[in-house]
Design a protein that fits this description.
Elements: H1 7-16, E1 29-33, H2 36-51, E2 56-58, H3 65-74, E3 79-83, H4 85-90, E4 92-97, E5 103-107, H5 110-116
Parallel strand pairs: 1-2, 1-3
Antiparallel strand pairs: 3-4, 4-5
Helix pairs in contact: 2-5
InterPro entries: Anticodon-bd, Anticodon-bd_dom_sf, HisRS_anticodon
GO molecular function: histidine-tRNA ligase activity
Protein name: Histidine--tRNA ligase
């Protein structure tokens, strides 16, 4: 035995009884990571940026970088920053604006990243 309810009908019912329908989250930044050290750095940066009010998403399931970038596009992230061994060693990364592909090189600090998000 099963149960089904159409999403549109559910939304109409909620609307008719005066309930606010939440809008989907729009992420400011997606931190893509390559490797264990980069994943740790992404978690740390995400924590710091969230404390500063930035909506950040990171990979939680071990996707490839290509899959992470695809996911960032799917969720509508405004920017993407890819972290890997080279970026961590140089303490610099390229912040990519998803709307037009423009890239900006910056230091891998929460302050610099937050400043670069317009």
């Amino acid at each position: 035995m099963g149960f089904g309810l159409g999403m549109e009908r559910l939304l109409l019912v909620l609307e008719s009884i005066g309930k606010q329908i939440p809008k989907p989250v729009r992420y400011d930044l997606y931190l893509a990571s390559m490797g264990e050290k980069a994943e740790e750095a992404a978690f740390s940066l995400a924590f710091q940026l969230r404390k500063a009010g930035v909506s950040v998403e990171i990979d939680h399931v071990g996707r490839s970088v290509k899959a992470q970038l695809k996911y960032a596009d799917k969720i509508g992230a405004r920017y993407v920053l890819v972290l890997g061994e080279n970026e961590l060693a140089a303490n610099k990364g390229k912040l990519k604006r998803m709307s037009d592909g423009q890239e900006t090189e910056l230091a891998l600090t929460a302050e610099e990243i937050h400043k670069a998000l317009d």
